[in-house]
């Protein structure tokens, strides 16, 4: 996540296949009631000398070493050892799935927030519902973040939020000043957002107003959906049984993005790049505005990050996403959760480690290392208060949305990604001529494919 590792570990995880997990608490006799579970989890009955295995993804420059150091105080306090093992994002989905099905794996694993439902459906993970009260339960988290631990239509809590990211608007303070635009209102709503880009185009011609990645970006859907949500659209119906990506409201949101391209406010060459490459275009001074996550803030003060131009590094501003016609602003919120394998031989010790990783200071320290936000509200607030730019992300997280927690979401997202990419390409002059009819045709195709997936068994 440092140079995109942060996005990888947070957002990337967000995009990999989704699903639902289903599990039960450990069958250890010491867990026969919640009181015993609570005391054990607090360390009174923990088995000293045992070793837990924790799978982590490339979240930081040295993922294994960084997390191993982070859990040293836990081992010192409890006597429970932790073997941190790094699993690459390119193989983690298959490895977690296979471990859950086989009943042989680590004690705890990191999982991307949109992956949780798929993994849960495999039946190999522990339902933590009777233990999460010990860490504050859903009241300790923003609604969108807590929803990533659930599976639609099922009882249970299948994960614990670990770290979080959301998307906000990055902008150049010096460019807005040259354009005569007040940062306080520049991105307040969709109209002012577009007007700001137009002012940049008219008055600061040596920089592109805005850019976003195209179909090469794993997170393309995250870029488009906030505009869909702003316009009253949604990815699926409330019961998650039907696609709603082709409703008039959803189409209006997609067309807002396409309209930025046809109006010359969106650097269409960025559509040939992935998310990291577009990020570097902003850092390098080509783009005046860009939508990204909090990991970029952590790179501003790193002198070794030579992707920054001097002017861009010195003039970074962050604003929450704009409100739509309904007066609400939405953004995609994601990150990674922690899941406990049902096959763990040490369920009490595993839960104790999850509790430690959920402590406010632990969350602050680890999230700072990643350039992310803590998952819990209290430490989130602490990070949000650290600067105006961090405050913008904190506000974004509170109103953030994620996708329906269903097993089929990963495949559905891929279908949407393809069609969104086709639409943006069309707006840029590639393929079919851009028009409302073209957009509707692509969204109808996406909805048809999604409906077919929704009709399949979640098993």
Could you characterize what this model shows?
This protein is α/β, with parallel strands linked by helices and 459 residues long. It is built from 20 helices and 10 strands. It has helices spanning 5-15, 34-41, 63-70, 72-78, 92-102, 116-121, 143-146, 173-179, 190-203, 220-230, 248-262, 275-283, 295-299, 310-314, 347-357, 360-370, 377-384, 388-398, 409-427, 436-454, and strands spanning 51-56, 81-86, 108-112, 160-166, 168-172, 208-211, 287-292, 316-319, 333-340, 373-374. A 6-stranded mixed sheet has the order 2-1-3-9-4-10, with helices on both faces. Strands 6-7-5-8 form a 4-stranded mixed sheet. Residues 1-43 have low confidence and may be disordered.
Keywords:
4-stranded mixed β-sheet, 459 residues, alpha/beta, 6-stranded mixed β-sheet, 20 helices
State the helical fraction: 40-55%
Radius of gyration from the alpha-carbon trace, in angstroms: 22 Å
Uncertain runs are 1-43
Q: Give the end-to-end Cα distance, rounded to a whole number of Å.
A: 32 Å
Order of helices and strands: HHEHHEHEHHEEHHEHHHEHHEEHHEHHHH
SS strand fraction: 5-15%
By secondary-structure content and strand pairing, the structural class works out as alpha/beta
How would you write the strand order of the largest sheet? 2-1-3-9-4-10
Shape: globular
Let me know the number of strands.
10
Instruction: Tell me, rounded to a whole number, the average pLDDT.
Output: 89
Tell me the major beta sheet: 6 strands, mixed
- State the helix count: 20
